[in-house]
Design brief:
The protein has 192 residues and is mainly beta. Helix content is 6%, strand content 73%. It contains one helix and ten strands, in the order αββββββββββ. A hairpin with a 2-residue loop joins strand 5 and strand 6. The protein is elongated, with a radius of gyration of 20 Å.
Length: 192
Amino acid sequence: MKKILLIAALAICSFANAQKGSILVGGNIGYSSTNTDYQFSETKVSEFSFSPKVGYQFTDNWTVGGEFTVASSKNDQGATEYKTNAFKAGAFLRYAVPLNPTFAAYADLGLGFQNQTDKTYTGNNYAKAKADGMYIGVTPALFINMKKGFGLNFSIGGLGYETLSYDNNGRDVNSFYFNFGQTFNIGVSKNF
């Protein structure tokens, strides 16, 4: 609670600095870990992701730039272990609306290429599958300016579509997601 009050106090005392001609640098780091016991079996899932962005603010409201994501997950289900490594690289277009000197609402439209490698270990057996595809998504968020253009970004999901086509005549995966309220991301950004 004290941290929330401190963040709120800092936010109230600051002023927005994002303006035409500035460079935006930001991103998110995420980690999650889950342990589940169900009917004599235990499942452990851990995930890590790193998603930086760099953009150019060409008007007071519009920013265009590049983004990429590196992610890794591990799912241990007793005798079987699944590992996934994913990479995304693309571009984004952001429209931001200042609500006051401290807060701004924005939406990012991102699209690009993605690559994923899945590995399955069962005893002495090992299987590997690679896939390539595309992604497109819209993510609304809130920016809280902490001081001189440095701030925190908060989002609670988005809307998107992804494709993955596995090598060697493997399966094709097309997924549509609408996960508002199902995820929570915190990031930092700085306008120069």
